[in-house]
């Protein structure tokens, strides 16, 4: 039931006025009290009539085929949130507009300059550990010394042998590195100077069946570009998604500008959308950026065969999970698929150019690198080669600072990442901690005066505190624009309460969605780790 703040406020205001009048004139207090009680009764009846009317309007909307977000917006009177919400930009000509209130932007120094440099990376890796649910020891089909082409199969999952993982570049396999319990950590390839591609068979999209399309993606490596929610896994071959969701912008700290990344790749992006549209019985949903004064790239706004949705707000507004929640929430046994923009382009090139082109434009960011910029490279590139020269005492992160993974210079970019962040290690002692005057630092609290100014921060990895009692603070709800109770969910995960976990919306979340809550957490709880444990528990029960 919708919370009509306006009517609640009027009732409270009237009661307050009645009490003041009663105190001011005790002689006529009894008469004023009676009038006040009658007025309150009338207001309550009016309030109930409005609630019933709103519910009946929404029922009619549901029967008329409106989605959940459209139903929620139906009312006799506008709420305060609607009256003072962000205005719809003039460049939006089609598609729904969503103005999200909760969230927080972390503005860091070291945004990538909009120039594309050529990568010096010579080694690339396929990392099975990047894929949730894959067997820890997949079947490796190559050996050290073998020559491979881009698109050749490198390994496959023993649990699901139809799903094949392919080489991003051509060259020589120089290492098969193992991790804990002899799991396969990475298959390393020394790339050729000029990339040679495996010749892929052509498929006529117009006349192909869905089964033929799926088999083609499996054989060419395109299937591994797709992620399923819930759980964040590569989907099963037999699954048909409720819908496919693609966010065309990223709101994370120092995230790459996808409008810049996609320049000149519009045809491949559209071809990828055409392929995805054939894989679902539902819609392909495109999340578009409505935060700026200018419209996004025409590659996105001019896309055809998709349903467009515009989003305005603070991070994590660019997360595809947040967008799914507002467009068509995951419920029951629903399964949806998600992809990044560059993954869509790779799928498009499989069909348009007949090759597995895993080229990527990566944003090398952060205040600890000497020249933040975009780098043209391939999937799984060596991190040290990408970042180039950095300052001392620096942490390298594959991804953004909130949800990325720490890397050394000898390790490799994770499969789904299009960003490397350099950030200073927070391993220096701070005398008196937060009690002393200090430099500006990012925080969701208004304790720091810098929070009132428009500044960029040179942050470090210091958490400024240790793990503490898991107390209820209400912080998570302020930064997570979803109608769930994240703190209750985390506690349900900790006690393995399956029914509460599902009821509280665990199937809608992945680690990136809860990362900002972890940043804001006074209790310093590892929320992303807790969430992954809960997701794995639920996946085992599925």
Write a concise keyword list for the protein shown above.
alpha/beta, disordered N terminus, 6-stranded mixed β-sheet, 542 residues, 17% strand, globular
Can you offer a commentary on this structure?
The protein starts with a helix and ends with a helix. Among the domains are: 80 residues, no CATH class; 79 residues, no CATH class. With 542 residues, the protein is α/β, with parallel strands linked by helices. A hairpin with a 7-residue loop joins strand 6 and strand 7. Helix 15 runs antiparallel to helix 16.
Strand residues, percent: 15-25%
Please state the average pLDDT score.
Answer: 88
Largest sheet strand order:
1-13-12-11-14-10
Main beta-sheet annotation: 6 strands, mixed
Helix content: 25-40%
The SS-based structural class is: alpha/beta
Per-chain topology:
Blueprint: H1 5-24, H2 29-63, H3 68-72, H4 80-83, E1 96-99, E2 113-118, E3 123-126, E4 139-140, E5 147-148, E6 153-156, E7 164-166, E8 171-178, E9 184-191, H5 210-220, E10 227-229, E11 244-247, H6 258-261, H7 266-277, E12 284-289, H8 298-301, E13 307-312, H9 320-327, E14 336-339, H10 341-352, E15 359-365, E16 373-378, H11 383-387, E17 394-398, E18 405-407, E19 419-424, H12 475-479, H13 486-494, H14 498-503, H15 511-520, H16 527-541
Helix pairs in contact: 1-2, 7-10, 15-16
Q: Would you summarize the structure shown here?
A:
The protein has helices spanning 5-24, 29-63, 68-72, 80-83, 210-220, 258-261, 266-277, 298-301, 320-327, 341-352, 383-387, 475-479, 486-494, 498-503, 511-520, 527-541, and strands at 96-99, 113-118, 123-126, 139-140, 147-148, 153-156, 164-166, 171-178, 184-191, 227-229, 244-247, 284-289, 307-312, 336-339, 359-365, 373-378, 394-398, 405-407, 419-424. It is of the alpha/beta class and 542 residues long. Among the domains are: 5-84, no CATH class; 463-541, no CATH class.
């Amino acid at each position: 039931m919708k919370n009509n703040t306006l009517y609640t406020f009027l009732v409270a205001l009237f009661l307050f006025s009645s009490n003041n009048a009663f105190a001011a004139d005790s002689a006529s207090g009894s008469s004023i009290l009676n009038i006040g009680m009658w007025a309150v009764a009338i207001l309550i009846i009016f309030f109930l009539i409005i609630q019933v009317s709103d519910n009946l309007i929404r029922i009619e909307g549901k029967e008329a085929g409106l989605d959940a977000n459209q139903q929620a917006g139906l009312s006799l009177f506008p709420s305060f949130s609607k009256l003072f919400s962000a205005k719809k930009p003039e460049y939006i000509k089609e598609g729904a507009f969503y103005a999200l209130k909760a969230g927080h932007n972390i503005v860091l120094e070291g945004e990538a300059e909009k120039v594309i440099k050529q990568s010096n990376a010579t080694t690339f890796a396929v990392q099975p550990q990047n894929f949730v649910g894959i067997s820890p020891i997949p079947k490796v089909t190559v050996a050290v010394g073998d020559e491979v082409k881009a698109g050749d199969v490198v390994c496959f999952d023993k649990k699901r042998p139809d799903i094949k993982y392919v080489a991003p570049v051509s060259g020589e396999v120089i290492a098969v590195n193992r991790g804990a319990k002899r799991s396969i950590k990475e298959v390393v390839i020394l790339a050729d100077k000029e990339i040679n591609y495996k010749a892929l068979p052509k498929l006529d999209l117009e006349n192909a069946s869905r089964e033929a399309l799926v088999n083609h993606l499996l054989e060419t490596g395109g299937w591994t570009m797709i992620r399923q929610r819930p759980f964040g896994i590569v989907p099963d071959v037999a699954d048909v998604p409720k819908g496919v969701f693609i966010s065309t912008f990223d709101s994370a700290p120092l995230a790459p500008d996808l409008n810049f990344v996609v320049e000149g790749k519009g045809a491949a992006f559209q071809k990828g959308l055409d392929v995805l549209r054939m894989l679902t019985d539902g819609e392909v949903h495109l999340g578009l950026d409505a935060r700026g004064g200018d419209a996004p790239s025409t590659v996105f706004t001019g896309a055809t065969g998709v349903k467009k949705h515009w989003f305005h707000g603070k991070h994590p507004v660019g997360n595809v999970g947040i967008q799914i929640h507002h467009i068509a929430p995951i419920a029951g046994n629903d399964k949806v698929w998600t992809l990044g923009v560059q993954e869509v382009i790779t799928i498009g090139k499989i069909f348009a150019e007949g090759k597995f082109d895993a080229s990527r434009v990566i944003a090398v960011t952060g205040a600890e690198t000497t020249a933040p910029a975009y780098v043209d490279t391939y999937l799984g590139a060596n991190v040290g080669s990408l970042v180039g020269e950095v300052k001392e005492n620096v942490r390298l992160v594959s991804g953004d600072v909130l949800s990325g993974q720490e890397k050394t210079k000898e390790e490799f970019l994770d499969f789904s990442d299009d960003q490397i962040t350099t950030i200073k290690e927070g391993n220096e002692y701070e005398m008196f901690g937060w009690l002393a005057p200090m430099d500006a630092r990012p925080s969701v609290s208004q304790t720091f005066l810098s929070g009132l100014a428009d500044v960029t921060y040179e942050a470090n990895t210091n958490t400024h505190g240790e793990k503490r009692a898991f107390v209820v603070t209400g912080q998570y709800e302020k930064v997570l624009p979803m109608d769930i109770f994240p703190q209750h969910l985390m506690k349900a995960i900790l006690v393995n309460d399956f029914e509460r976990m599902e009821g509280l919306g665990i199937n809608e979340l992945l680690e990136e969605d809860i990362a900002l809550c972890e940043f804001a957490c006074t209790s310093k709880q590892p929320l992303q780790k807790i969430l992954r444990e809960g997701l794995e528990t639920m996946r085992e029960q599925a």
